[in-house]
Amino acid sequence: MTERFMLSRRLSRRELLKTSAAGAALGLASASFPISRAFAAALTVGFIYVGPKDDYGYNQAHAEGAATLKAIEGVSVVEEENVPETVDVQKSMESMINLDGASLIFPTSFGYFDPHMLAMCAKFPDVQFRHCGGMWNKDKHPMNAGSYFGYIGLGQYLNGVAAGHATKTKKIGFVAAKPIPQVLLNINSFLLGARSVDPTITCQVIFTGEWSLAVKEAEATNALVDQGADVITCHVDSPKVVVETAAGRGAFICGYHANQSPLAPEKYLTGAEWNWAKVYKMFVDDLVAGKPLPNFTRGGLADGFVKMSPLGPAVSEAARAQFDGTLAEMMKGGFSVIKGPLKNNKGDVVATEGQTFVEAAIELESMDYLVEGVVGSTA
Amino acid sequence: MDATEIGLWGVPLAMLGGAIRVSTPFIFVSLGEAITERSGRINLGLEGTLVFGAMTAYAVAVMTGSPWLGLLAAAAAGLCFGLFHGWICKFRGVNDIAIGIALMLFGSGLAFFFGKPFIQPSAPDLPAIPFGGWSDVPQVQAALSVNVLFLIGAALAVFLWWAFRNTRAGLILRVVGDSSDAARAMGLNPNTVRLLATGLGGALAGIGGAYLSLYYPGSWTEGISSGQGLMAVALVIFARWNPLGCFAAALLFGGAGALGPALQSVGVTQGYYLFYAAPYILTLVIMIATSSPSRSLAGAPGELSITK
């Protein structure tokens, strides 16, 4: 009895193996002749996110951009959330290419670039990969790879202008994840924006060490408010916890990544938001038109890569005027947040008298200092 | 010194506030696990139960507008997870640790699946009781704004400590945990006792999750837990299966966790990664200091698979 049962089970398992082998063969066949090639207009675009795509933050900003592509005829979008920055992301990319026939892939998280996306670029030379935030270099990286990013430091400068008018204690706070160049530029921009209002303002920064650590972010926000900071902003993947905690303690908020004003409408001053819809549409339009995609794409407020949340009810008339004036200045393009004379918070000169770094200056993407007036350390 | 400038006093104050704010999930999960382990089973799945409880509480609070109903739902969901673990583990040859790990992954995955639509909406918070009214310093008031769950957790720790020694139920639990044979000789069914103990442990872990999503940090995201459920299981061993010890260890972890941000906020900005490791270094030091090569862990239930 038992033997017969075992036999039939073994047989059925063999059947199963056979069918799955056939399935795999079919999958291989469709991989070598991607279905999308058969229809000229059909284009599948893959998006990979490191967290949930409705996190009020980094991933939501990308997902909102991806959502606008779905409206374009002949374009289909495949998405995967919560993909860690490990070999998992390689598997996600492979399955998007082999199973969904994706011919353009956007791995959106910083750690996806090297080595994961580069490995896939070598394996699938016909597929285009564009990475958010990475530094594509034509000497080192393949031509089907590329990177795009926005000068969101400009947005943090404008946040700083609003914060500079709102603060009564002359102390503002920043909850940061890791001391990488993009984060440091945001911290510096936030302070320099505030100092364009009042040069005695200081900014306290707390690094949490990770992109998403809800409890630590809440603790950091509480610690900043305890030390007298009355305007808080952040650079973490999901600002929801920081915004709600700060508002609960009565501090003002400047947003980041996406619009968080629904979480604290009274306390929300403004926010620096991504406008990825514009960037993604640009890539897709190029691909549909048969043009080669750019490999190194950057843009700021003037280019529409970055936008500001509408000003909140707590923003004063004086603040509104200076905000609008600075914004108009930035919309001309070529604004420099970092301009001399400027020292870092250890006293070393980072920009001499008359020296300016415009928004597109490549030096800014390797920033390793905090400017004078920021209380904090990069290590 | 005006009211907003508290300077270095911010550090002890933040640690006190942090101990109260951060410790509550540790308290509930570790008390729940203490009950389960005292019955001779280990449930490693409480991390999954915690995350699922956080999601359930938030979702129910969003839908009904009542955080208390959310709390109740989280406890019920935790009870189901615990009972499931307890039921499966009664079968011969089933390893409670392996089932726990499976339930940990299952609970988190299920919570992510059902929790998708609830990341965006805001739920009403559980109420806090302001104990800082005597002080006119806003920071002190904020630190002493204590959530009711913390107080319930503290009372529960004392009650369990008393009940383990002085009640019939406590005695039954300990007998089953120390020797199945003795329990059977007394006419007790060890599987039933363990089923109930694991279920109760799960319910408490669910309440711990509800605190995370409904009070502090007070929102549902998929990264809400950062391992509190797992740490709390370790805390039980650290606390030698003593409920009062669990409470103290949870406070210690909460306070040590607040150290990193608080030091940075007063300008001690170098080496924050080291400060963030403080709770774990502390655990290691205490474990090493209290361990002995010549005897097994004091207070360990005899039937527990990790100490057998």
TrEMBL record, chain A:
Superkingdom, natural source: Bacteria
Keyword flag Glycosyltransferase: no
Domain ABC transporter substrate-binding protein PnrA-like: 44-314
Keywords noted in UniProt: Signal
InterPro entries in alphabetical order: ABC-Purine-Binding, PnrA-like, TAT_signal
CDD domains with a match to the protein in the record: PBP1_BMP-like
PANTHER family to which the protein is assigned, alphabetical: ABC TRANSPORTER SUBSTRATE-BINDING PROTEIN
Listed name of the protein: ABC transporter substrate-binding protein
TrEMBL record, chain B:
Major localisation: membrane
Keywords for this protein: Cell membrane, Membrane, Transmembrane, Transmembrane helix
Pfam short name (any one): BPD_transp_2
Membrane topology category: Multi-pass membrane protein
Subcellular location(s) of the protein: Cell membrane
Signal peptide coordinates: none
Membrane-crossing residue ranges in chain numbering: 6-32, 44-62, 68-88, 97-119, 139-164, 193-214, 246-266, 272-290
PANTHER family registered for this protein in UniProt: ABC TRANSPORTER PERMEASE PROTEIN, SUGAR ABC TRANSPORTER INTEGRAL MEMBRANE PROTEIN-RELATED
Protein name, per record: Inner-membrane translocator
Organism the protein comes from: Mesorhizobium ventifaucium
